Amino acid sequence: MGEDDLAVGVEETSVDSSLPISLSGADRKWYNWLKRLPALVDYITIIFCAIGPWLFFYVAMWALFAFLVCFQILSIMQGAYLLKGALALRKGVKEELPEILPKHYFAIVIPNYKEDLSTLRSTLDHYATFAWAKERFLVILGMEGGEAECEEKATTLESEYGDKFATVVHSVHPRGLPGETAGKHSNERFAGQFAYEHFVQDRAFDIDSIIVCSMDSDTLHTERYFMKIEAEMQKNPSHVYNTIFASPFYNYQNMYDPQVPGFNANFDQLWAMLSLGILARSNSEFKFPASSYCVPMRFLRDLDFWDGGPEGIAEDEHMALKAFFATNGKVEIHTIYEVMNVGTVFDETIWKGIKAKLVQLRRHFQGNVDVGYSFAMLRRRFFRLGFWKHVQLSQRIFELFFLLTMSPIVGFVGWMQITVRVLMVESLQPDDFPDWGYTFVLTTTLVMNLTFVFIGLLVLSAEIVKGCGPETHNSCIGNRRWWHVIKYLWMLLGTVAMVVMSIRARTSLLLDRNFSYVVAQKVVNTDKPEELKQSPQGVPDSERAADDISNDAG
C-alpha cells in the first residue's frame, strides 16, 4: 500500500526529552506517597465538616461559605460550557462535510479480554460499512495472553474481516511483564508498540500517515468522526507532533433497554455530560479525553506509547496528563463534535446490574492515582510550564479529583452542621446569637440552591445531546415519552454512589493495596427493542455486564 509523503519534518518532535516522560527513580517514590493525597483530603474534609462547627465555629463557617461560593462559580461555568458543547454537537452532527481524498490510515486498536465474539463482530461490522474501511482502516485486535482462546478468537476475526478492511492483525499481550499492571492501558501499550513495529518498521508505512485510535471493544464512532479528523490533519499537518483528537460520548446503545437499570443509564448520562462540559472548552486549553480518542503515530511514539504501570490505569486521562507534561503543556486536545455511541453495563437482574455498575465505578476511581502522578511529574517541570498552563492543570485536577467528591460532603454534612450549630446558639444562648446569624444561614442556603442552575443546564444539555444520536435511537419509543425526564432523579443516587465508590477506591490507595484484574459475567441480551435490532449503526447484540474491572486483592 503506497502512500504520498506526509512527513512534516524528519524526526521533529514537541516532546521535551531532556527530562523523563514517565515515572522513574525519585519521581516514582514521590508518586507512591502523593497518590494517597485524595484519600487524605477526603477524610480531613469529612472530619472538618463533622466536628469543625462545634470546635471552631467561625473558622468552619467562613471556610464552608468560601468553598460553596467557589463550587457554585465552577459548577455554573461547567454548566455553561456544557450547554455550549451540546449546541456545538447538535450543529456539528448536521453540518455538511466537503469531499476529501483520504491520505492517512486509521489504526484502530481494540483491546479486549474475554469479550464475546458477537460483541467484537458487531463493532467490526459497524466500521466495515465505512467508505474508507477497505483502504484506510488498519485493525489491531489487542488480545490478552491470559485468555485461553485468544489466538483462536483473533484468527477467526482475521479470516472473517480481512477483506473488509485494509488489514486485520492482532497482538497478544503476555501477562506479568516487568513493571506492568493488568488492564486496558498495558494491553494498549503492547498493541501500540506492535502496530508501530508492524506497520512503520516492517512494512515501511510513513509514520506521519498513521493515526492511532484507542477505543473499547463496543465503541461505535460515526464515519464523520474519521472524516473530520482527516480534514483537520490535511488542513494542519503539524498535528502529528502534539495533538490528541477527542469526542463526546453518550450511551445510545441501550439507554431504553428494559434490562438496563435506570440508575446505570442515568449515571452514564451524568458522566457523559460532565465529560462534554470539559471537552467544550477551547482547544488551546488543557482538558481530558474520555474513553476513546485518536493520536498521530509520531506523537504516540514520541510519548513512548501508553504507560503500562499502575499509574496508567486511568488510561484516557492519564494519556492526556502524560502528553501535557512531556510537551511542557503544549499538547492540544482537539475536540471533534461527533458523538461516540457507547453502551451501559447491565446484568441478569436489576440488582446485579447496579452492583456491576458500582464495581465498574470503583475501577474508574482508581484513576485517582493520577493526582500522585501529576504532582510527581510537576516536581521536575514546574518552571517549564507557563502561568496559564499551571492554572488550567490545577483547575482540571481540582474539578476532576477533588471537587466531585468534596462538594457533596461539604454541601450536605458541613451545611447541616453549621445550620444546627447556629440554631442551637439561637435557642439555647440567645444573648450570644449574632445579628447576622439568620442572614448567614439564608445566604448559604441560597448559594447552595444555585446548584439547581447547574442541574437545569445539565438536563437541558442532555436532552439536546439525546437528539444527536443514531436515527434508531431518535425514533425509539422511550425517547418520545415526556415522563422519561423523571429518570433524572436517579442522578441524586448517582452522586451518592460516586462519592462512596470514590472514597472506597481512594482508601485502597491510602492503604497501598494491590489490585487484581477480574472480569464480570457477560450477559447476552436477546430482548432488544425492535428499533435497536434494525440499527444500521451495528449496535452490538450483546452488552458487557461490566467492562474489565479491578478489585482489591485483599
UniProtKB/TrEMBL annotation:
The protein, known as: Glycosyltransferase 2-like domain-containing protein
Domain Glycosyltransferase 2-like stretches: 212-418
Pfam hit, one: Glyco_trans_2_3
UniProt xrefs under InterPro entries: Glyco_trans_2-like, Nucleotide-diphossugar_trans
Lineage: superkingdom: Eukaryota
PANTHER family named in the record: GLYCO_TRANS_2-LIKE DOMAIN-CONTAINING PROTEIN, UNNAMED PRODUCT
Keyword annotations: Membrane, Transmembrane, Transmembrane helix
Organism placement in taxonomy: Eukaryota, Rhodophyta, Stylonematophyceae, Stylonematales, Stylonemataceae
Bilayer-crossing regions: 37-56, 62-83, 397-418, 438-460, 488-505
Region of interest called Disordered, as start-end residue ranges on this chain: 528-554
